[in-house]
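User: structure tokens for this one?
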Amino acid sequence: MPKVLELLEAYVEWVAISLGGLFVILMLWLYVLTPAAQVEVGGAPRTPGEVDAFIRSGPARDLEEAIGSNKVPEMPVPEFTEAFQKNMAREGEPTIAWDFPPMFKVRQLTEAGGGEGPTPNTPQIVAKPVKALPVPPVPVMAGANSGLSNVMVPDPGQVRDPNNPAQLVNLPRDVQWVTVEADIDSQELAKEFARQGIPQQIANANNTLFLSVELSRREVRAGGDEGPEVIVKPLQIHEFPEFPRKDDRQAIAVYEDWASRNSKVILQPAFYEWKAGDKWMLPTEAQNAEVQPAVDTAAPSPVTPKNMTAAERKARRDAEAAEKKAAAQRRAEEKQRAIEEKRMRQQQGGPGGPRPPNYAPKGPTMPFQPPPEFNGERLPPFMGGANASPATPGEIPAGMFDPRQYRSITIWAHDESAIPGKTYRYRIRYAIRSPVFKSNLVANPALAQEYALFSDWSEPTDSVTVPSRTSYFVNSGVRPGRDVVSFEVFTRYEGRTISKVFEVGPGDAIGGVDGEISYMTGWTVVDFRRDLRNSDETYFLLVDDEGNLDRRDFRTDQGKSEYRDLKGERDADNVAQGQATR
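Assistant:
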């Protein structure tokens, strides 16, 4: 032990130097000769200090550029159209256009006459693809009627009835109107369906629907030429949804639902509630009213409008209007009773179930008729086929219908926008739902895309002159020492005939405004002139807003039957209002 200590003491300096050298060598090895800690980033080994720089210059930059780029990546979409059309066409499969009862089978014939084989003991309905759409027959014009009435119309200010917030308040208003009436031959429509191969002997024979009735007019101008065609809008009390485009399936579904519930509004829209003035009636009713029965010469002359006083004529018009309103109310009550009876029968077992209490069938019982045959097979009663009895003339279908079940369908439309005093000719047409819309029973798929089938326009009506609100007549000659003449102007206000005298001279308009009452005629005095055939007479030259000329004189105007009738109506209305007559 002493030797070891002696040795250390002798070489202590070298031992310390050796330890320091070893420490230096270790540090060189750890921090100089040996690399720092590394990881593999981006496919290469990197030190901790290199990782952040690599990320910033690589992935982070690429991500930032991708986020800020406006380039839309390519997204390939499979082509579905061809596959969809093939599936819809159902090539090589039997075509079924509608749902049939289980005891019936439909097969489609090919051009060669072949088709799916029959099933034993199953009636066969053979259907060929429809190659052309049917063309609805042109409506037959029945006539036109016009008048000027005081009616109840919805408040233009959209004021609601406090007792019925869903209803607008109705206000009295003078309205000039024209009603055009026409007839549709439903049997001819059924024949057209048959000509185009539309299946008729099927369970769901109610294969069409009335969609719209359109009215157009053209003004008849001086010289006989006509103005541009104008499509007439419906009355304010009827709200029609916009007619859908054939490619807008959602709008078609909404419109079809509305049309199926509003056949009456489409085909025979109601007129305003009448208060006074000309009584509204259909053209055919007006024509029948003008026909007088034969008079027995031995009997006293009947009371006719020609030999009645103005007061009697007005009383007669009021009585006829009241009777018509009562008849309409009776018809509405009968219709409501029929609806209630039908509902009760359905609740008590349907058409074949027990009848409601006190039920009695209307009219004589129809005799039993055996079901018809089709292709040698007997069909059930609900498939009446072409042997089905058409409905009573004048009836209109409600919703989807079979044209074979109706005869003549009467339609009409109103015009309240015509200008008083103008003359027009009217035409009418209608549209029905295509019986093969969305059906695969067509040779060309494009035929199934057509929703509405429009008829051609009817023949025009005879010229219809819209009643003028005002009429004017010379009331006196030229005033001595004054270059003026007086005109008596008649107008209709709240269903009453009233008049006022205006003094005018050359350049003055005939008429004027008195409070809420307009006596404007649209005519202006041009000049006074002496009649060369009678120097004691003066005639007056007038011109209207469109440059038309008129000649008037005192003697002729005072002798007109129209002037006498208007004075009589005015006096009768004054009496009815409790006013003193002139």
